[in-house]
Amino acid sequence: MMDRRRSTLQPSSDMNATSRSAIPVPATVRKPNPSRMSVAGSSFNPPPPSSNPRQSMMRSQNMNPLLQSASKTNYGRTPLNNSTRRGSMWPGAANMPPPPSSQTMKDTRPLREKSFQITMKQDISQYLRSVHYDIGPATLNNIQGKEYRAIVEFLILQLDPYHPFDPASRMEDEFIPALRALRYPFVNSIDVKSLAAPASMHCWPAFLGVMHWLVECCKAIQTYEGSGDPTLQIAENIPDEFEDPMDHQALAFEYYEQAYALWMNMVDDFVEPKQSLEDRYARKNGQAHLELEETTAQLEQGVRELEKLKAAADPLAKLQNENATLKQDCEKFLKILKQYESRKKKLMDQITFEKAELITKGNQLEQLKSEQSRLAEIVKTQNLTPEEVIKMNTDHETLTQNLRDLEQKIAETNRHVMTLEVNVTNRAAAAEEAIDSYTNLLTQLELFPPLAPPLEDVDLTLDLNTASSNPHNLLSGADIRRVIKPALSAVAEAKRSARANVESERIKLDNELDQVTLECENIEEEIVEVEKKVVALNDQADDLREVAQQEAVVANAEANRLEKELANARTAALGKGTIVRSRLQTLQFNYREQVEKVARLKDETVRAILKNTHEIAIFKDEVSRCLSDLRLFAEGE
User: Fold this and answer.
1) Which secondary structure element, helix H or strand E, spans residue 477, and what is its range?
2) Any alpha helices (H) in 108-244, and if so which ranges?
3) Where is the region Disordered (predicted)?
4) Concatenated DSSP letters for 66-104?
């Protein structure tokens, strides 16, 4: 951590230091020369001999410590490993400009208060012990100059490990420049003459304040280094996902550092630093790629759903059709519900009637039992003779036998009645099922009234009333033989006719479809023939195009030849300009003579035409007169 930290001392006083690069840029092309030239400025003095293959060929005049020549042993060198101590950026006391008077500040700390001094001593002692510096408990109470110098140098080296302390120099010569390099705000209030006895009463508060300020700076640096702040630019602390510009700069600096080390070792191919940097950014972009893939998958799914919705039929029309169907079903259900309600009412009436009959029969049974009891009491109270008793017993046995026979017959009759009731119930259930099936068929065939003309007055519905005592009222509705069956026959005949018409129409459409298919096949054959002709024409066109191109080449060659001849002729004409001008004057003179001659001949021709025209007009008048005389003569004859 300390090796990576930059020095906090002031930079060099070179005015051109800010305009130069701090780190040499490594070359990307291997040079044939095994040695490297320094990127610093040159001088006419040759460098001292050295065995380093990277030494500078010229001595640098640049005062920037980051651009010092590599030939110097302990100043401005880039360490090849972390164990090498590099030189400090502090330029020394000789080159340090004196501070302006405007920087003089008054120390506002209560340095002369005993409590504040005790607090500062405790802070200093605790920090020095925390960094394993051997300090006694009473060292700060009566400190010597040597001890004070050791503590101050230790604290300054904690802040800048490469500060160039000279053990042979005096403390007075290095103390003030070091504090100025560290930008101690109250450096002007320190008297360096008292460093020999720093524990004296008048100067000890200031020296104690210096140590406390250095300790606070060291603590601040420790806190900063342990905070994990991105400005530390530690590549190991960078998370996998990062967006901070400082993290990018840290990775870039690590790459430059590794590349520069390879470059200093005569290696121009930075494969490992590049691969490490690419792997690091690949890890960073991994999550982004995953999120991108998920987003792309969601987008594709949304696009597919959108296309599916666009390709699907209009849901409103589908819902309207379903609504119409449901309304029709509702009407049919209401009609069937009315039928079942009427049937329920009839069954309830029948159940009420049966309950009343059951109560009546029960009352009659109770009356018969009471009558039997009364008669038994009467028989007991009567005084009868044995013959009468025998006769009565015989009659009783006869009547009992007759009663048993009648009971058997009644039982048989009841069984027969029960059988008939079961049969009637089964038949009624079968009839109800048949009526229900018939009603469902009417519903499916849409034959509920009103029917289509001419059957609008016919009602095909039937209703079964099993509770009716009159057989004629068991089935209510129109007459099956006279009304319903003929109506159904008429409907079936109409449906058969419609089906026959539909079948005829289908056959007709199939025939037309076959004809259209045949025509399509013929058209396809014609298209194939036309395509063959087009291919042949394209071949001919290609041949003609090739011939035209050849002719164009020949024509271009001929045109080039003619242009050359024209250029030669133009050159010859320019050489014979005088002859041509004289010839031109002669031709112009002849041209004027010819123009005058043509004008004269033109005038003569016009006069001759006018004369001939006049003579023709006179001849025409004479011929007209002769013809008129001839007509008059012919009419007179």
Assistant:
1) strand 475-477
2) 114-130, 145-159, 171-181, 204-226
3) 1-107
4) GG--TTSSSSSPPPSSTTSPPPPS---SSSPPPPPGGG-
Are the C-beta atoms of 252 and 235 separated by less than 8 Å?
no
d(CA 55, CA 72): 8
The first and second tokens of residue 258, run together, are 């590794």
Bond prior to 97 in cis (omega within 30° of 0): no
Q: 60: which 2 tokens?
A: 């640098």
Q: Give me the pLDDT at residue 533, please.
A: 82
- Mind listing the pLDDT tens digit for each residue in 75-99? 444 443 443 344 444 444 444 444 4
DSSP 484: I
Q: What token pair was written down for 110?
A: 């209560």
**φ, ψ at 249 (rounded to 5°):** -65, -35
Length of the chain: 637
Query: At 463, which helix (H) or strand (E)?
Result: strand 462-464
- Long-range contacts from 447-452, C-beta under 8 angstroms, 24+ separation: 447/491, 448/332, 448/335, 451/487, 451/491
Q: Which residues pair with 463 in a beta bridge?
A: 476
Place of tokens 């031709």: 587
Q: What is d(CA 575, CA 579) in angstroms, rounded to the nearest whole number? A: 9
Q: Is 462 helix (H, G, I), strand (E, B) or coil?
A: strand
Alpha-carbon torsion, ordered 170, 176, 180, 184, to 10 deg: 130
Q: How many CB atoms lie within 10 A of CB 317?
A: 9
| Rounded distance between C-alpha atoms, residue 437 and residue 429, angstroms | 12
DSSP annotation of 474 reads: S
- Rounded distance, CA 294 to CA 287, Å? 11
Q: From residue 430, how far is each of 339, 362, 427, 434, 464 by CA, in Å?
A: 17, 33, 5, 6, 11
**Residue written as tokens 């949304």?**
302
345-384 confidence digits (pLDDT tens): 888 888 988 888 889 988 988 888 888 788 777 767 776 6
For residue 349, what are its two tokens? 């009436």
Report the chain's C-alpha Rg in angstroms: 67
Tokens of 546: 């090739």
Q: Which residues contact 142 (CB under 8 A, 6 or more apart)?
A: 199
CA quadruple 451, 455, 456, 462: dihedral sign:
negative
Give the span between the Cα atoms of 463 and 340, in whole angstroms: 10
Cα torsion through 246, 248, 253, 255, rounded to 10:
160
- Joined together, the tokens standing for residue 604 give 């003569």
Going by their DSSP bridges, the two strands 475-477 and 462-464 should be labelled as antiparallel
Alpha-carbon torsion (270, 273, 279, 280), positive or negative: negative
CA distance 298 to 289: 14
